[in-house]
Amino acid sequence: MAGKKKTPLRKCVVTQEMRPKKELIRVVRSPEGEVFIDPTSKKSGRGAYISNDAQVINEAKKKNSLARHLKAEVPETLYDSLLHFHQRGSL
């Protein structure tokens, strides 16, 4: 009785949409307070998911959504990395 595997869903912190985990980018605040992109979605720490869309990334930067959800200061370079990640599809 082999059934289909369920696709895990996560909520984008900007759009509040539930989307498949693979369509989102995970950003993590480590226990040491460092904020970084987690392409594997396996690093420990407080995570927040954001849609892999340039418009959503820019909106997150404008509204400071990631900083609020991660309860940490998000460096400007992280948003540049997110946009680069979006354009290339990987780090």
Topology as a string of helices (H) and strands (E) = EEEEEHHH
Discrete helix count: 3
Number of strands: 5
**CATH architecture name:** 2-Layer Sandwich
CATH class: Alpha Beta
Query: What is the C-alpha radius of gyration, as a whole number of Å?
Result: 13 Å
Strand order of the largest sheet: 4-3-5
**Strand percentage:** 15-25%
Largest sheet: 3 strands, antiparallel
Distance between the termini: 38 Å
Indicate how many domains the architecture comprises: 1
The CATH topology = Hypothetical Cytosolic Protein, Chain: A
Oligomeric state, counting identical vs distinct chains: single chain
Mean pLDDT comes to 90
Summarize the structure.
Residues 10-82 form the YlxR domain. This protein has 91 residues and is of the alpha+beta class. It is built from 3 helices and 5 strands.
Main features:
three-stranded antiparallel β-sheet; globular; 32% helix; YlxR domain-containing protein; Hypothetical Cytosolic Protein, Chain: A; 23% strand; 91 residues; YlxR-like_sf; YlxR_dom; 3 helices; YlxR
Describe, in plain words, how this protein is organized in 3D.
With 91 residues, the protein is of the alpha+beta class. 21% of the residues are buried. The protein has a single domain, classed as Hypothetical Cytosolic Protein, Chain: A, CATH 3.30.1230.10. α1 packs antiparallel against α3. It is built from three helices and five strands; from the N terminus they run βββββααα. It has helices at residues 54-63, 65-70, 76-88, and strands spanning 9-11, 18-20, 24-29, 35-37, 46-51. The strands form two sheets. It has a three-stranded antiparallel beta sheet with strand order 4-3-5. The protein has a two-stranded antiparallel sheet with strand order 1-2.
